[in-house]
Amino acid sequence: MKRFAKLIQQLELSNKTNDKIAALVDYFNYADDKDKVWVIALFTGKKPKRPIKSALLKYWAIEITQTPEWLFAESYANVGDLSETIALLLPPAENTSDFQLHKWIEDLHDLEGKDDETKKDFILNAWNKLETQERFIFNKLISGNFRIGVSNKMLVNALAKQSSLDSAQIMHSIMGKWNPYEITFHELINGIHVNTDNSWPYPFCLAYALEQEPEKLGDIAEWQAEWKWDGIRGQIVKRNGELFIWSRGEELVTEQFPELHFMIDVLPDGVVLDGEILAVQDKQVLSFSTLQQRLNRKTISKKQLDDAPIVFFVYDILEYEAQDFREEPLSIRRHTLEQLIGDLDESPVMISPIINCSSWEELADLRQTSRSINSEGIMLKKLSSHYHSGRKRGDWWKWKINPYTVDAVMIYAQKGSGRRANFFTDYTFAVRDGENLVTIAKAYSGLTDKEIKEVNAFVNRNAIEKFGPVRTVKPELVFEIAFEGIAESKRHKAGLALRFPRILRWRKDKKADEINTLEDLRQLLQSTL
Amino acid sequence: MALIEFTKRGIYCKQGNFYVDPWWPVDYAVTTHGHSDHVRFGNKYYLCHTLTKPIIKRRISEDLNVETLEYGESITRNGVNISFFPAGHIIGSAQVRLEYKGEICVISGDYKIEDDGITTPFEPVKCHSFVSESTFGLPVYKWQKQEIVFKGIKNWVNDNINQQKTSVLIAYSLGKAQRLIKNLAGDTPIYVHNSIANLNEVIIEAGVHLPKTIRITPETTKDELQKGIVIVPPAMRDSRWIKNLSHPVTGICSGWMQVRAHRRWQSADAGFALSDHADWPGLMEAITATGAEKVYVTHGFTAAFSRFLNDEGIEAAEVLTRFGQEDDEENKVDLAEQNENK
Predict the structure, then answer these.
(1) pTM of the complete model
(2) Are residues A305 and A210 in the same domain?
């Protein structure tokens, strides 16, 4: 655990990729093999069994430190992280422990099903023999995520450097399905599990936003244009008589989408399809908010199936006849795809249609109609391109339409968390509704550090009320808020909710009485339904 | 009538007609210590601890009219007895004890409980009312013993030297710098920035023993610095001078470094939680030891700390001051908030 604690500290202290990779390589050189497996699991978002709710951790910490709950909340607001707040609040440990990371994880695992008293004893005992940094990590094992700026790519690069294995192969291995409680480090990075496992998906090919004129991309005939959809990116994997559906979050979501199960009979073995899960009714793509009703559910009711039917729009074919097909050019892959499932008419699986255009101007005009079909714009893919792992510049571009915007006034401010724990960085915005202001969105990104400082100073000077970490401020600062969609919402007072709201710019030129009204947004909502 | 009141110019004793650490010019300014948020230019007379006199003369002006007191000494102004007691914050820092007709009030300025090896350690003073800072007035701020922190700093320096990196510690020229010098002195030479070297001279002249340091001059080579410890004030932090050193790595020594978010925001290479302010247990210990019936809470987490004291049965009130401006950038933000919310 001490070694892992040190690794986390090193990773947090540097912003330089090379330093981080060096720290990881150093760790993988010396750490226990079982610990290494867990570090890979944790950094790729595989959580260990969590037999204890974080609310209980908080409760026990409050109890043994006799901290009033409000004071805990104030401390949390300053620290910005629950696990760390608890770690710092606890009295110094009376003992030490050389227990390794995987031992802790296994012991936590064994608490599953035990009564609360047993769990509490275990936790208090653990807290009493861990240093602050170790405690922080221990708490994170139970209740948090290790968000410390290590991307899968960085992790894979470090592993490749340390093991001298091919990085694509390692990426493949760690992305697949493996059980950190069982697999050894050697098996994991050598991908022993990958060949025997029918389910493993490929890394998705991602696109950068097109920031130049499309004309600069050359002849349009070298490009394939498709609509860009706002759903859940996924892969359908069929191997050895088994079907798997993966979401881009590297999650298996097979059970959540029974509409797609018929593909087990349609697809031959050794096929992997890349596409997007969308809510579709009467051949019309519905908004993302409709699709949301289907996400993250353990069971799906008949009503949900009827209310939010889904379709899988197929973009690409990554494996064919049990061979990795990603090195084939897109034109060949597309052709193969059409041969394979081109005749699946009126079914919940359809190939993403190609937009046929003979000039960029024509395509630009069509792009303007994206909203009318609930598309976000256009995807451009070079016909000669391979299917890359991850984001790569040049072959795939997303050419999104400009977002919706609304001018709104800031009425609440709250301190951020993590890096921004001591600045007011999370703002709530309102539009006018007659004489009143009604909140429509919360956003925390889009300003420069300098602007954040300026807004921070404004909040300090103009705070009206204080509710814990939240300040009510004089409605004076106007911001242009960009968003991708709008949906009805019973939870929000305004009766509607914005999708992906973010600050586009600070409208210093506008006064609070020049902002948009709720009626403006209602009209927009009507027009998208 | 209360012995002190909080006015626009600062903490005011009407009976004695003087201010303690005023932020606007007054006739008579009782001064707790030499940090710039506690002592300002333009007062007719200053009263401070003997060791603070040369410091403020050097930092503000040689022309100041300064009277001094030793710890435990007192003078009387219009019936108000004024005496000084060690605050343990920095060299020369004093708690100001006021007594009038049996009523005792202590204005502590900034203070810390731990003996840092160079500052006269804090001494609790019995009083009826106590003015306390609350810079680190949240229970997540609990310091480790300084031996442990310094061991960490020394290890960091040794690792850097072995890896051909130059260790640059960022510390306030008055207070933190001398504390580092005193506790890091050993086989590794310590190089200090001009502003620190100047203050060191004054402090040594006043009779305080400081280990030997080397003033950085244009002649000092990068190679020498790489093999030593470099101490510079915060103003130098993002300077070209540091960037031009041989593989520079910066370490910030501040209580705020206790929390990851602050460490990351500062984007230093290392953060060491070393503070000249009392931590949460320190604040509680100090306040309890005074036996005060009423506590005025100034700069820091005033709201949370005073609420906690009230819940504990110690009458406490938040007070608006302009103290705390000398601390880290982050602190300024918090303080501005505390102040402006009044």
Answers:
(1) 0.68
(2) yes
Other Cβ atoms less than 10 A from the Cβ of A115: the count is 8
Q: Model confidence over B263-294: pLDDT tens digits?
A: 876 767 889 999 999 999 999 999 999 999 99
Shared domain check, A487 and A353: no
The number of domains in chain A is 3
Domain residues for the domain of A13 are 2-143
Tokens 């978002």 belong to residue? A45
A345 and A245 fall within a common domain: yes
Does residue A451 share a domain with residue A313? no
Provide φ and ψ at A409, rounded to 5°. -110, 145
- Please list every residue in chain B whose beta carbon sits closer than 8 Å to the beta carbon of residue A420: 261, 265
**Which stretches of B185-266 are DSSP H helices?**
194-205, 222-226, 240-243, 260-266
- Please tell me the least confidently modeled range out of A160-174, A473-487, B200-214: A160-174
In this structure, is residue A193 part of a structural domain? no
Residue in A132, A414, A422, A464 to test binding to B, most B beta-carbons within 10 Å: A422
- A385-389 contacts: CB < 8 A, separation 24 or more? A385/A329, A385/A330, A386/A326, A386/A327, A386/A328, A386/A329, A386/A330, A387/A202, A387/A205, A387/A274, A387/A316, A387/A318, A387/A325, A387/A326, A387/A327, A387/A330, A387/A333, A388/A205, A388/A326, A389/A168, A389/A171, A389/A202, A389/A203, A389/A205
Domains and CATH numbers, chain B: 5-141+276-340 (3.60.15.10), 146-272 (3.40.50.10890)
| Cross-chain CB nearest to A84 (options B260, B271, B311) | B260
B155 touches chain A (CB under 8 A): no
Residues A152-199 have pLDDT tens digits of 778 988 999 999 887 767 876 786 678 999 999 999 988 877 654 677
ipTM of the prediction greater than 0.85, yes or no? yes
C-alpha closest to that of B182 among B136, B229, B141, B226: B229
